[in-house]
Specification:
Protein name (chain B): Ferrous iron transport protein B
Radius of gyration of chain A: 11 Å
Helix content of chain A: 10-25%
Subcellular location (chain B): Cell inner membrane
Strand order of the largest sheet of chain A: 1-6-2-3-4-5
Number of strands of chain A: 6
CATH class of chain A: Mainly Beta
Distance between the termini of chain A: 7 Å
Strand order of the largest sheet of chain B: 2-3-4-1-5-6-8
Number of helices of chain B: 31
InterPro entries (chain B): Fe2_transport_prot-B (IPR003373), Fe2_transport_prot_B_C (IPR011640), FeoB_Cyto (IPR041069), FeoB_GTPase (IPR050860), G_FEOB_dom (IPR030389), Gate_dom (IPR011642), GTP-bd (IPR006073), P-loop_NTPase (IPR027417)
CATH architecture of chain A: Roll
Membrane topology (chain B): Multi-pass membrane protein
CATH superfamily of chain A: Ferrous iron transport protein A (FeoA)
Strand content of chain A: 35-45%
Number of domains of chain B: 4
Oligomer: heterodimer
Helix content of chain B: 55-70%
Main location (chain B): membrane
Distance between the termini of chain B: 77 Å
Structural class of chain B: alpha/beta
Radius of gyration of chain B: 31 Å
Strand content of chain B: 5-15%
Structural class of chain A: alpha+beta
Order of helices and strands of chain A: EEHEEEHE
Number of domains of chain A: 1
Chain lengths: 79, 714
């Protein structure tokens, strides 16, 4: 059963599917411009040495964002 | 002949756009700025047979939504200059995301030729792309390229030329459906825009309407200044926004971007992507990242890289710097020999040659530092540095990318604030970049070190290493805390979101590195020849005029005449010369200011000699030591050899370990040297450079007074 949670809560190597972007305005637009839209598959590929920011794999590239920004992305996990 | 056609290169960051630009234009390029912003505008020429074309390399961008100053400048260029053709460089490995920008270019209506770049990587992965199919669906030429080796270059030029000719005249925007609600509103807005001829000379009507729906603040502000139609359009957009909020619990710009990605997915499904079961594009990069950004190994490697870069810059740079210094020294002597003794000689030798020579001495450092910086940047490593350090720097209102400017400016003692301030260019968020520029000059640059060493030798000879280490720590603390202070007071507000791409590691091309490095050096040299020359002369004048009057000069002359007979005549004459130099300095404008400030500077324990030296230090920090030498009537003191001077200072009752400590704190904090100030003005603005001079000096004085006064209580 799919389960909605915040992107920040994902473990490294965990896969998820974007359900919604909760940010509007500039940040929301930036997130979408970089390819994160509902339906996108993302995998957490790593965290910086101080656990923040987080590195994400989506489509064919790697993005990094701060945890405070990841909070605006709601995902469904597959397990 | 001026070019009749203009090509603009557009594309995501790291798509190989600049490599393609270099391959198209070779060395025939120059760098300027877009009007009113510090975004670099790279322009070049390309000739095909008798035809000459202008090529503009737009800043890297993911979208035309004008999120950053880069994107805004690029969009303005497209709309205002209306290039004959946009070459949209697309990383074929991330086709889906890259086409997001392409679709927006097509919606704008500008003639677009797609360059499917990095096809070599795509082929190596066993991915099959059908460029012809893509071309047929989108209705624009598609050319496969490998910019690094020039593959596809000729075909691309041919296609772009032909397409620019064919599509001469009005733009032909692509129309995408955004769902019934948005489509209807768009049609009504379009009709209204056409009827009122509202900004139709600048933007296609549908594109303008779309920007209103996307809530584009730049376009909305422009609209308000251009007539009452704006109110109607804003009202229509607001109505739609409420409707979408009520029915879809979403916003129009989210719905619009969903449909754009939907359109792209549909295009790719129509046989463009032949095989999707390919190897992971970035598997290699990923395994590198597992080491290079590892919790423990990552920071260790990063420190090693930063340290190595620093060592290379300053050890390799030492040789050409010495040569330049020797060359200018020789030139000074030669010119001095040709000119008669007097004001003209002093101006030429001490003002012009010494001033410009000192400034050009930095050129080797800038070249070596920027070469390495461009290498790490193009390699993709700088993005990882920012990623690893962001958490630390964010606490001080800075950005992960601020670390490099700090290190270069003297985060490891011996750096230089000039290349440090210039290195802040790699930061894309304006607020963090500005604060980085303002804070970088606090670091212990190579020119401040003789000042610290002089004071350490005079007052803390037993603990030299420890004190120097504490000075370094204090410099970092000053930079970070002052950055925090400015972010809380004068540069307030949210920084840009950190969200950015970690590009796959790619080896940069030597040619690209050389072109970028050469540009930086040239920009700096041009500045040295103009502004910096003028300031050198001013500083020289302030320390020379007004000269001693006849009577005083005659007194020194008489003294000299009196010693002619003695055995140690030369020595005594030198001593008199030195006392005369002291008198001249004290008598000069800078000297008078120094004396006048004594009543205030006493609070921090500085006497008039220190004041003059510190004023001289605004020209270049090395001057602090040599001016102190003159002020203590020791003649010109070599900053490398200060033993006599430190003895004199230690013996001077006006000095104490406490005032030395206050002076060290002041040296860390006070106004940057004028080369740095000019660089700051170039990188930020004169307003901020002036702010740094005033605020840093004020802050430095407060701290120095606090140290001196509190210390005296014990």
């Amino acid at each position: 059963m799919a389960q909605g949670l915040c992107l920040r809560a994902l473990r490294v190597n965990q896969k998820a599917c974007v359900r919604a972007i909760l940010a509007d305005g500039e940040l929301g637009r930036r997130i979408r411009d970089l390819g994160i839209v509902p339906g996108t598959e993302v995998t957490v590929v790593g965290r910086a040495p101080l656990r923040d920011p987080v590195a994400l794999r989506l489509r064919d590239f790697t993005l990094t964002m701060r945890n405070s920004e990841a909070d605006h992305i709601l995902v469904d996990t597959e397990d | 002949m001026s070019p009749t056609l203009t090509f603009a290169l557009a594309g995501n960051p790291n798509c190989g756009k600049t490599t393609l630009f270099n391959s198209l234009t070779g060395a025939r390029q120059h760098v300027g700025n877009y009007p009113g912003v510090t975004v670099e505008k790279r322009e070049g020429r390309l000739s095909v047979g008798p035809r000459e074309m202008a090529v503009v390399d737009l800043p890297g961008m993911y979208s035309l939504t004008a999120y950053s100053t880069d994107e805004l400048a690029a969009r303005l260029f497209l709309v205002e200059e209306k290039p004959s053709c946009v070459i949209d460089v697309v990383d074929a490995g991330t086709l889906e995301r890259s086409l997001y920008l392409s679709v927006q270019l097509l919606e704008l209506g500008v003639p677009v030729v797609l360059a499917l770049n990095m096809m070599d990587e795509v082929r190596r992965r066993g991915l099959v792309l059908d460029g012809k199919r893509l071309s047929a669906i989108l209705g624009v030429p598609v050319v496969e390229t490998v910019a690094r080796v020039g593959e596809g270059r000729e075909e691309l030029i041919r296609e772009a030329l032909a397409f620019a000719e064919k599509r001469r005249g009005p733009w032909e925007p692509l129309v995408i459906s955004y769902g019934a609600d948005i489509d209807q509103t768009l049609l009504r807005m379009e009709a209204r825009i056409e009827a009122d001829r509202f900004l139709t000379d600048r933007f296609p009507a549908r594109w303008l309407a779309l920007k209103y729906l996307e809530g584009d603040s730049d376009v909305i502000a422009l609209g308000r200044a251009n007539g009452p139609t704006a109110v109607v359009l804003e009202e229509m957009a607001a109505t739609l926004s409420r409707h979408i909020e009520a029915t879809l619990a979403s916003t129009p710009d989210a719905v619009i971007s969903d449909h754009r990605y939907g359109y792209i997915a549909a295009v790719l499904r129509q046989g463009v992507l032949k095989s999707s079961a390919a190897r992971d594009r970035i598997a290699g990069s990923d395994s590198l990242d597992r080491v290079l950004t590892h919790t423990v190994a990552g920071p260790v490697i990063m420190l090693a890289v930063l340290y190595a870069m620093f060592q290379i810059t300053f050890s390799l740079g030492q040789f050409p710097m010495d040569w330049l210094e020797a060359g200018f020294g020789w030139l000074g002597d030669a010119v001095g020999g040709l000119l008669p003794e007097g004001m003209l000689r002093s101006l030429a030798v001490s003002g012009i040659i010494a001033g410009v020579g000192g400034v050009l001495g930095f050129v080797p450092l800038i070249i070596i530092m920027f070469f390495q910086l461009s290498f790490l940047e193009d390699l993709g490593y700088m993005a990882r540095v920012a990623y690893m350090l962001d958490r630390v720097f964010r606490a001080f209102g800075l950005h992960g990318g601020s670390v490099m400017p700090f290190i270069i400016a003297g985060g490891i003692p011996g750096g230089c604030a000039v290349p440090g301030v210039m290195a802040a260019r790699t930061l894309r968020s304006p607020k963090e970049r500005l604060v980085t520029i303002l804070a970088a000059p606090f670091m212990a640059c190579g020119a401040k070190i003789p000042v610290f060493l002089l004071l350490i030798a005079a007052f803390f000879p037993g603990n030299a290493g420890l004190v120097m280490f504490l000075v370094t720590l204090a410099s970092w603390a000053a930079a970070l805390l002052v950055a925090r202070l400015w972010r809380a007071t004068v540069v307030t507000g949210q920084g840009m979101p950190f969200i950015m791409e970690l590009p796959p590691y790619r080896l940069p091309t030597l040619r690209g590195l050389c072109i970028h490095t050469g540009e930086r050096a040239w920009q700096y040299i041009k500045k040295a020849a103009t502004v910096i020359l003028a300031i050198s002369i001013l500083m020289w004048a302030a320390m020379t005029f007004p000269g001693l009057d006849e009577e005083q000069r005659a007194a020194f002359e008489a003294e000299r005449a009196a010693v002619t007979a003695a055995a140690s005549a030369q020595e005594q004459r030198d001593a008199i010369d030195n006392r005369e130099a002291e008198a001249v300095l004290r008598h000069s404008l800078a000297g008078r200011v120094g004396v006048a400030l004594e009543s205030v500077s006493r609070l921090a324990g500085f006497d008039w000699r220190v004041n003059i030296a510190l004023i001289g230090g605004i020209a270049a920090k090395e001057v602090v030591v040599s001016t102190l030498g003159t002020a203590y009537a020791l003649g010109e003191v070599d900053p490398q050899d200060t033993a006599t001077l430190s003895e004199r200072i230690a013996a001077d009752p006006a000095f104490s370990p406490l005032s030395a400590l206050a002076l060290m704190a002041f040296t860390i904090l006070y106004a940057p040297c004028f080369v740095t100030v000019v660089t700051m003005a170039k990188e930020a603005s004169w307003k901020w450079a002036g702010f740094a001079v005033v605020a840093n000096t004020g802050l430095g004085f407060l701290v120095a007074v606090a140290i001196y006064q509190i210390g005296r209580l014990f």
